[in-house]
Here is the input.
Amino acid sequence: MIVLALEVEKQLGALALAVRFQIAGGVTALFGPSGAGKTSLVNMIAGLLKPDRGCIVLDDTTLFDAANAINVPPHRRQIGYVFQEGRLFPHLSVRQNLDYGRRMSGRPRDPTEFERIASLLGITHLLQRRPRMLSGGERQRVAIGRALLMQPRLLLLDEPLASLDAGHKGEILPYLMRLRDQAAVPMVYVSHIAGEVRQIATTVVRLDEGRVLAVGGLELLAGAG
Amino acid sequence: MLELSPAEWTAVELSLRIALVATAWALPFGIAIGWLLARGKFWGKTVLDGLVHLPLVLPPVVTGYLLLLWFGRKGPLGAFLYDHFGIIFAFRWTGAALASGVMGFPLLVRPIRLALETIDRRLEDAAATLGANPALVFFTVTLPLALPGIIAGVLMCFARALGEFGATITFVSNIPGETQTISAAIYTFLQIPDGDAAAGQLVVVAIALSLAALIAAEWLGRRASARFHGE
Here is the structure.
């Protein structure tokens, strides 16, 4: 079952991005060195960056199709996005951050789901705090919770561990692995670190200089840094 | 000590009302223009920026005279507003509010624009991915994050409106109980023999009100930004 089918081209300064792949459920890693175009790619999936050409289809919904002038705006794509730097809203408490997606889409409160996600990520004791009172690891866990609670059809994670020191990196991966094993939501995981990808990914898309080198299993990581 | 006569109290009360109304009306326009200047990319942006700042550098008498030409009963805008909405500016306190609002406007727009320019746009992207449409992004992320700038602008505009003299007196004259603000009353007292004492009292009031506005601006601004960045 294809979850996401993507065929896009975009000129990004000197980099000519031309990428085509399809992914099924599970965790798909976009793996490649810095400057390979990974972040641009997830921004296109989220709707934050417009491709020059091509199309993006999620399940049976066309999100982008240059030929037919279709470009669903980000707020209607229902794609969760965990950014490298968390991007929690500094003027809202952790609880309000987590609740933001539900409020914006006007869905009724679901305390059971809220409680489930908060305890899954181990952030129930942080709900009253402001983001600036959190450690880096806590911040990323809240960011993951915020994206999950909007009930995404797909979850994008752009180097979610990059801003964390070694100790806090280990704090996040177990949560993501639990999420993967529950198979609740398909994920696209961007990283340039093979060790990280090996632990979390089920499929690997190797990228370099705006091109797909290979799509396959974890064996693609062999020989990579 | 301070013992204000009823006429002086009227001037104080009128000044406060005019400054409040002027600031309240200017605020939505100030946010809109501040947003255009911070985010907009359009032809004539420099011209708009210049127009907004014009009252700051123009002699206030000129601003007042232009207001009289446009918003007087026979002026193009004044006639239109009277015919369609029954609004009169000329020689009314509403005209004083208009003049003060125009004079305070550059001081309102500037901090709002700066605040909007320094907001991390990536937070707005994050809000969009969470399902917020552009209007919701503006009201739930952009505006709250710009709050310190908005507070600073509001209080500067209010303080400026409170003390406005030149444009007001040119546009709506100096009518006790209608357009005679603290500044105009002080001016009037200084024109008559032995008016110094009465003028002195109003001077004290003016200093107190201006100081209060400045202290409030400082305090509120600090509180608002502490909410995001403080300890």
Remarks:
- Chain A touches chain B at residues 46-48, 73-81, 83, 85, 87, 89-91, 100-101, 104-105, 130, 132, 146-147, 150 (CB under 8 Å).
- Chain A has one domain: 4-221.
- Chain A has a mean pLDDT of 92.
